[in-house]
Design goal:
about 240 residues; about 35% helix; 7-stranded mixed sheet; 10 helices
């Protein structure tokens, strides 16, 4: 039976690499990918990532851009389902990508999406989150415990070091473009964990880093996307 993946997106500003690269891996592995946006509108990536954030730098790499150009022609991507229509029992994987421009707030703050994420955990489905995507999970509260679904888990996400670096390199020209919220992703995430040490930073930022904890797989930022996707594919093939 073909494995099914659901990738929720905001209407605009998602990270090119964190969506297109996993999608490419899933398709090549013979998996069926469905996309979802708040009301079923076709999502659009952050345009700066296609041309370079500043002076042609800090944008998506050529392989990610090429994958995104393919993705733009994909029918499930062009015709996403609304968040409300996601049935967790129909999917093997929930992938929560990131992005840092302000359009991401629609997705990161969606109570509907958080409720769907909770169901994926309740059904022990594979859940992947990269970069800002971990905020969806940090904000997903299990009513039985009153705690985030991340409580007691080990994970990673966009580190304060990475988020701060992006901001410092660009604020003089782009203002708070790299600050989705006043609070850093790492700080908000750590606040819902059992222990601060449960948030892992990895070693060198140039070496891909992924954290696996049961059915949860997390990564930090676009440079981790290939390894992140590979781990998700592997996990689905062998089971949680």
């Amino acid at each position: 039976m073909t494995k099914q993946v659901i990738i929720p997106l905001p209407d605009r500003d998602f990270d090119t690499t964190e969506v297109a690269i996993p999608w490419k891996h899933f398709v090549e592995a013979g998996m069926q990918v469905t996309f979802s946006t708040e009301a079923g509108q076709t999502g659009q990536t952050d345009p700066r990532l296609l041309t370079g954030v500043i002076f042609g730098q800090l944008g998506a790499k050529s392989d990610a851009i090429a994958a995104y150009r393919e993705l733009e022609k994909d029918e499930p991507f062009r015709h996403p389902i609304p968040y409300e229509s996601i049935d967790p029992q129909e999917y093997d994987v929930l992938l929560l990508p990131g992005g840092h421009a302000k359009g991401m707030r629609q997705y990161l703050g969606s109570k509907v999406l958080q409720n769907k994420a909770l169901e994926f955990f309740k059904h022990d489905k594979v859940v992947g989150a990269i970069c800002h995507g971990v905020l969806v999970l940090a904000r997903t509260i299990d009513p039985e415990t009153g705690r985030s679904v991340l409580y007691g888990r080990k994970l990673t996400g966009l580190t304060k070091r990475l988020e701060r670096a992006g901001y410092y390199l660009t604020f003089w020209r782009l203002g708070d473009y790299y600050r989705t919220y006043p609070e850093y992703v790492e700080d908000e995430t750590v606040n819902v964990l059992k222990e601060r040490s449960d948030f892992l930073h990895g070693g060198s930022i140039s070496k891909p880093f992924v954290v696996e904890d049961g059915n949860l797989i997390t990564a930090r930022y676009p440079a981790d996307a290939h390894l992140f996707a590979q781990k998700l594919v592997e996990r689905v093939k062998i089971g949680v």
